[in-house]
Amino acid sequence: MPFISRQRFDKSVPAPNALCWLCISLLLIGAASCTTINPGKWQLVWQDEFNSNDVDPARWEFEVNANGGGNNELQYYVTNNASVKDGSLVIEARKEKYTGPEGTRQFTSSRMRTKDLGDWKYGRFEMRAKLPKGQGYWPAFWMLPTDEIYGGWPHSGEIDIMEIVGHKPGTLHGTLHYANPERNHTFRGTNTTLVTGTFANAFHVFTLDWETNSISWYLDNQLYQTQTNWTSGTNVFPAPFDQRFHLILNLAVGGNWPGNPNTNTIFPQAMIVDYVRVYQKK
Hints:
Layout: H1 16-29, E1 42-48, E2 61-62, E3 75-77, E4 82-85, E5 88-100, E6 103-109, E7 111-113, E8 119-120, E9 123-130, E10 137-145, E11 158-163, E12 171-179, E13 185-193, E14 204-210, E15 215-219, E16 222-227, E17 245-253, E18 269-281
Parallel strand pairs: 3-6
Antiparallel strand pairs: 1-18, 2-7, 4-5, 5-6, 5-18, 7-17, 8-17, 9-14, 9-18, 10-11, 10-17, 11-12, 12-13, 14-15, 15-16
């Protein structure tokens, strides 16, 4: 995730015409040719459709802390801000004072991970979600290494499947973080922007295909970037992206990249997740 590094919700997906316009937009900005997902080589191996009454502890572990994610974020991550409602996971950011073992913060939110509950080397990772907007919001769907074979961050890598900053609520970012041959942090990635509207207006599908020598990002089943070149210090390619990684869902408030909320930022708002699915090759 580091960038240096109350109503029922409409879960409608973009109409086919909207996807066509997305293709045209991607071609115009030169992000990628409009390649669609090929479902034939994948089989579903893990999923959470959020149809139970609460967050499933067999699938998700809460991270409770106030360390700011290494990005000077402002929230205290707690368990109370994540719930399951109407078939969706709702991660809510609130403007409220909270004091815990690591100090006092003026905002709360939640961060969840699948570490040691769901860990994968290669696969397709997909989320359907609706995201908040406004200065200071920073929702993310991303991956970290479970074993850190190559050392601490960034040497063992980071895969950002979806990141949005609330002051640009129509722009999606996908990024790889790793160490260059000099063992300094570096990253590769790009972004794509909706032709109309924002990611707060409707549900969208965010997908990452991670294979041995390539990693590809899709928005609503349309390819917008592929990366085939990265490093891990002096380790041999495809390190560090040749080890087990786990999933993380969180909604940050503030930080080095999105900046802090301002007087126009509306609280509370939520990251609403319809499903998370993991596929691997047949």
